[in-house]
Specification:
The chain has helices spanning 24-31, 40-53, 71-79, 89-97, 114-122, 133-146, 185-191, 215-233, 260-274, 284-287, 320-324; strands at residues 12-13, 16-19, 22-23, 35-39, 59-64, 83-86, 105-107, 127-130, 150-157, 180-181, 198-204, 240-242, 277-280, 291-303, 306-311, 330-332, 339-345, 354-362, 369-372, 393-398, 401-406. The chain has 427 residues and is an alpha/beta fold. The strands form 3 sheets. Strands 4, 14, 15, 16, 17, 18, 19, 20 and 21 form a 9-stranded mixed sheet that branches. Helix 5 (114-122) packs across helix 6 (133-146) and helix 8 runs parallel beside helix 9. The longest helix has 19 residues, at 215-233. It starts with 11 loop residues before the first strand and ends in a 21-residue tail after the last strand. Homodimer.
Length: 427
Amino acid sequence: MPSSGSEPAFPRRGGVLHAEQVPIPAIAAAVGTPTYVYSANTIRARLLRLEQAFASVPHRIHFAMKANSNLAVLRLLHELGAGVDIVSGGELFRAREAGFIGRDVVFSGVGKTVREIEQALEERVLLINVESEAELVTIDAVAGRQGVVAPIAIRVNPEVTVDTPHAYIKTGEKGQKFGIPRDDVARLVAMVHELPHVALRGLGMHLGSQIGNADPMRDALPRLLSAIASARADGHAIAYMDVGGGLAVPYHADEGDADVDDYAEIVLAAARETGLTLLLEPGRFLVAEAGALITEVLYRKHAAGKDFIVTDAGMNDLVRPALYQAYHRIDAVESIEGTVVADVVGPICESGDFYAKDRPMPDVSAGALLAVQTAGAYGYTMSSNYNSRPRPAEVMVDGDRFAVITERERLEDLVRHERAHLQWRTA
C-alpha cells in the first residue's frame, strides 16, 4: 500500500537500495535495465510542500511538464489538484490524455505554431503566454478566425542576474530569447487595446532553473509588479500573476534543498500586494528527486592508467551530464566494500557518453546494478534513439507496489515510421 512520503524516495535497507518499499533488484529482475524508477510518494510530498507554503493566498501550481511528461506522472499530479504548464501541442495532447482540461493549462514557449495556437483556443486553455510582438498579432488573428477572444498573459523578461549551474538554464537575463524585454512591455500592453480578439488576463516571468536562493526573485518581482500596475492603469482586467518555477533541487549529497520558505515569503508579499491569483510553474522541484535511472554494469576496463565502469545506460538515456556537464550521484544498489576512482561511461559511440569522470565509486563488478539519482526531471523526456538504441522502460512505485508506466521500446519501434521502399511523388 502507499506510504506516507516522509522518507527518501530511495532508502537503503539491509544494504539494498529500495524504491520506497520495493527492492530495486526486484524491479530490475522483472523489467530489465536501463529503467527509470519514480517514487509516487515523493511527488506527493513535494507538491504538498509547495501547497502548504502558498496556502495563504489564492494560487494554482502548474507543473512544467517538460520536466517529465509521462502520463502516469501527469495523472498523479492531476489527481492531486495541480495544473500544467506546457510548451507544445504535443504536451497539450499528453495533458488531455492524463485528464487535464483547458482551465488547467498555461501555454508557454517562444515558437508556438498557428496550429498549436488553434489547438490551445479549441481547448480553452487558461492562458497563452505571449513572448513576442509577432506572436501577439498571430494569436489575435487566429482567435479572430475562430470567433473567440484569446486569454493571454505577457511574459516579462525582468533582465536580472540569475546564478544557475549552467548558462543554458538561465531565462530571465537580458539577451535571452524568452519573454518580452521589460522596456517593451508597456508598448505591447497598449497594443492589446487595438487587437479585438485578445484579452490581457495576466503578466508573468520565469527566471531560470536550479535557482538556489531567493535573491533573483527579490530583484525581479518589483519589475513584474511595476508592469502589473501599469497594465491595470491602462484599463486591463488582470487576474493572474505568474512567477514561473526554477526552485533548485540537490544533486550533490552535501547540497541543501531550495529555501522554499524564504522564496514563499517574498512571493506571498507580492501576491498580497496585487490581490491577484498566483500561478507557480515548478517542474524539476516536483519530480527530480523522485526518479532514478537503474543501470547494469556491463564491463570493468582499465586503460592508460584509468579505470572505467561501463554501463548499459548511455547518453541517449540520460543526456544531462553530456549536455550540461551535470552532476548526478551514483549509488551501488547493493552495498559493496571497497572503492575505486573511475569514469562511469555508457555504450554510445561518443566521448561525451559518460555519467561521471574520475569519481570515487563502489568497486563494482560486471552484473552489479547502479542507481543514477535525481533523474526524475529531464531524463526520459530528453532521451533519444541515438545509435539506434531503444529507449528505456519507466516504472512507478507506490509504497510496496510497482507498475510499468512506459514499456521498453523494441527494435521494431526504431523503424516503425520509416520507409525503405519508397513511393515517389512529383510536385
